[in-house]
User: Which sequence fits this backbone?
């Protein structure tokens, strides 16, 4: 795997994306065009709003159905905390097949997974502050350069 792209899912109501969330994810899919090159896959945490967000991105690129993983979903308000090692294992396994992985994830993973990857997979120092993305924004973890780049809304 050359890069991991984390995307925070769109705004939602009653477990599903609302109109704004769908529009945000369509714009995010367009933004991803310059980053999603070569063989890549779109995955999601196992929750409706993440799967719907990932499906909008996958459809934009004419990709097959999105794979969802319970290891990529956390919700502090429900007492479900991130399992960083389990998420790392899922992503690392997929990384053997794909050059780029686009993972639609919850805030809890957006805040903690990049630092975990930098420290434990790439073996470099990670930023002290948690990563923050608004809905539909993306973060690229470049394995070759061992860097994180955040792309906010324009």
Assistant:
């Amino acid at each position: 795997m050359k890069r991991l792209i984390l995307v925070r899912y769109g705004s939602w109501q009653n477990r599903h994306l609302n109109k704004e969330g769908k529009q945000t994810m369509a714009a995010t899919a367009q933004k991803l065009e310059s980053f999603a090159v070569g063989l890549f896959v779109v995955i999601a945490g196992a929750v409706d709003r993440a799967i719907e967000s990932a499906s909008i991105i996958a459809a934009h690129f004419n990709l097959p159905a999105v794979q969802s993983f319970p290891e990529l979903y956390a919700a502090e308000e429900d007492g479900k905390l991130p399992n960083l090692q389990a998420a790392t294992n899922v992503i690392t396994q997929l990384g053997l097949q794909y050059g780029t992985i686009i993972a639609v994830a919850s805030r809890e993973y957006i805040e903690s997974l990049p630092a975990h990857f930098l420290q434990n997979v790439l073996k470099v120092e990670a930023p002290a502050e948690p990563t923050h993305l608004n809905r539909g924004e993306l973060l690229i973890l470049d394995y070759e350069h061992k860097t994180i780049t955040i792309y906010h809304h324009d």
